[in-house]
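Task: encode each sequence below as structure tokens.

Item 1
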Amino acid sequence: MRQVEEAVKAEILAVLRATLPPSSIPDPDARPRVCLFLGVNGSGKTTTIGKFAKLLIDEGGRVILAGADTFRAAAIEQLQLWGRRVGADVVCHQAGADPSAVVFDALQAAVARRATHLLIDTAGRLHTKRNLMEELKKIHRIASRQMPGAPHERFMVLDATSGLNALVQAREFHDAVGLTGLVLTKLDGTAKGGVVVAIAQHLKVPIAFVGLGEGLDDLQPFSPEAFTDALFAAS
């Protein structure tokens, strides 16, 4: 039995390690570095943006947040709260505004203020709503038109408890914009998120970060070894 477990662990590690991003990032001097955050409602997307902003600011970065989730007024308010909490500027319009217009203004502000990073929050889209996916593609085009190569990162935030439906969601987002990384939230130290192994295997998208709790510093770089050990520790 022990041999079987070790063989399975080795297979999972091989899958996860195969998707790790390269040590050198294309255009490392691109400023601002534009990161698009995607995911369905309730995945922890806006909270992840706030934590990621703090991580960057702690490293000496200057961060601007863009509130392109204009469908919910609460989403804009939540992003503004995170901006005040971590010391990041926030560019937003009123609820119901064109998300692409927010991204356009945010990119101009990020260049003018010499920001190192622009983190874009987007609406909690459902993969079954084609019009919203088309809007996401529009945001991508606007960013690319304003700054060649942008958005440099397209992170999808996944709730570790969401199960196999996460694979369907990730595939749709990947088809729309080409994901560069996954962020796995709500792990809370237990063996959750095994579906991410399937996503990594099928889509070849690396897991960039994991969220382990509610604290400001709970967003951590992903470790294939630690993740695999946690999967088997509680099994």
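Item 2
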Amino acid sequence: MTSYTLPALGWNAHFAAQLTDNLIPMRVTDIHKSFIGTLGESGAERLDMTLDLVDQGVTVGDWVLKDPETGQPVQVLARQTLLKRRNARTNLDDQLIAANVDTLFVVSSCNKDFNVARLERYFALAHQGGAEPVLILTKADLADNPGEFEAEAMRSLPGVMVYALDALDPATPEKLAGYCGEGKTVALLGTSGVGKTTLTNALTGLNQLTQDIRSSDARGRHTTTARSMHQMQAGGWLIDTPGMRALRLADAREGLEAVFADIEELAGQCRFNDCAHESEPGCAVRDIVEPERLKRWRKLMNEDTYGNETIAESRERYRKVGKLHAGGKARGVSKRK
């Protein structure tokens, strides 16, 4: 059985400060209904999905503490970083994606899948969760001019590191090695069909099956069906995730401010503090920022604001809007009379 040192698994002073009572640290590699897969100094181990874990919430990349007497996990350690999204079906709770991730590889491709609005969501999620976002543009070998995708990404996402590559190229692992060394954790996020599984195979040496994509929209079927953590050839750890068709942000105001830092900085120069950047005089944003980018910023900010409302707050807002509309109709009727 393969054994590991805790630092090689990503253990550091942040986690060591939480270690008590001779409990044993284990890193979560995969989640199942009745058990979790873990790695520790003694190697791989399956631990029961206890009520303690269910109550605390646990996801791939977490550190849990195991009681040596019972063999049961009893605590999820406080995380350094946490990637999560709003539940797209209920909009009431958060879905945990991965924990203790150093770098998020946001994976798109040099074809019809490339979508700036979607990338902005992924990058906001990364910034909000505390991970460093890096854009990986796959299938560069199949594009007539991959440089166009790279240039558009750098223009639309200022300051972002962008790598346009062929995941099957033997040189690819070396290009990304700086993020993948011992003790580091990387997660992959992107839609189905962008080449996440091929990239996973390149970085880990695994041989997971891949599937074809549709020519109409460059989308694929889910190859990865559950989150799992694998060791990379460079010594670090890779968390692969299923393709996401919908990504609703959760409590992502700080992440959005990071992605749209140019707008946030200009907004401070507007004449009015409550400027909506539409028709107000003295607006420092409207004439400088590309209209489509400004539109996407407004949409995501509104989604974040209203997505975090409680049911009671949402009902109250709709009640006020309804009264406002009713008042407007009533005034309109009186004028016609």
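Check on item 2: DSSP finds ten helices and 13 strands in the chain. The longest strand covers residues 24-31.
End of task.
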